[in-house]
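Dissemination and training. As part of the outreach component of the grant, students in the summer workshop were shown how a complex can be specified as a set of sequence lines and then modelled as a single object. The example used during the hands-on session is reproduced here so that future cohorts can follow it. Participants entered these lines:
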Amino acid sequence: MLQAARLGKKAGGRWLLQEIDLCVEKGEMVGVLGANGSGKSTLIRCLTGEWKADSGEVRLKGERIDTYSPKERARIVAVLAQEPLGEIEFTVEEVVKMGRYPYQSRWSWASGRDFDVCDSVLRQTGLWPMKQRQLAELSGGERQRVAIARTMAQEPELLVLDEPTTFLDIRHQLAILDLLKKWQSECGLTILIVLHDLNLAAQYCDRLVLLKEGRMVTSGVPKAVITRERIEEAYGVTPLLMTHPTLHVPQVFLQPAKEEKK
Ligand SMILES: Nc1ncnc2c1ncn2[C@@H]1O[C@H](COP(=O)(O)OP(=O)(O)OP(=O)(O)O)[C@@H](O)[C@H]1O
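and obtained this result:
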């Protein structure tokens, strides 16, 4: 579905990203991890064609990403950026309908299918009861759910999300990740997701990619990536690791720095 070879990005006279080789297979959920400033958003921007790479290349379904028109690309890839939706003057339903723009031409606005898809997405995301409300009236977490619903209405083959759970409480974090997982298994959706929560990443992702200072430290199944050595290397903290009692994936426990004995 998505492939990067020796990908690099430069800005302000330095390399933000270097030598990234990555392959995301159809139907996989791949998590991108790394400390603040390690290059996760830069990687996402280059992989989705928002930024042009300065070295290497990105291929989407075998074709170079820069050969797609924006509308062609939007029928394959939906992106949920890190910046939340602002307090724009639209209703929830209107924002979700914006997700249908790649399927509409100048001459044909919304069709019956566009309405059906939007209704189904509003119901699946629990937004149906608030569909007539103005976005400006919603909480940050509710607005985030609307943003996710808009990407779902786009019916992409590849969904790219940059920290989608940031503003959500634990119930809504799980609800959104469960919804993504259901969508992945029922429709063969491919997901690339930046997550700060290592435990959720281990629970939901098939594979993980760990970045440090713009380079890939390691990639692989959660058990291979979330190890004491790798976490220490990437984040500079020493975690306690245990295995999740039912899911059998690694889980990270943090501990305060020990005070020196006087
Ligand atoms: N347009 C830009 N010009 C110059 N430097 C940039 C630009 N955008 C990002 N950077 C720098 O590139 C590095 C990686 O930034 P990026 O946003 O990709 O990190 P991140 O891993 O997503 O961080 P966070 O977890 O804080 O969101 C940072 O040092 C950042 O300051």
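The first strand starts at residue 2 and ends at 11. Students were then asked to discuss how this feature might be tested experimentally.
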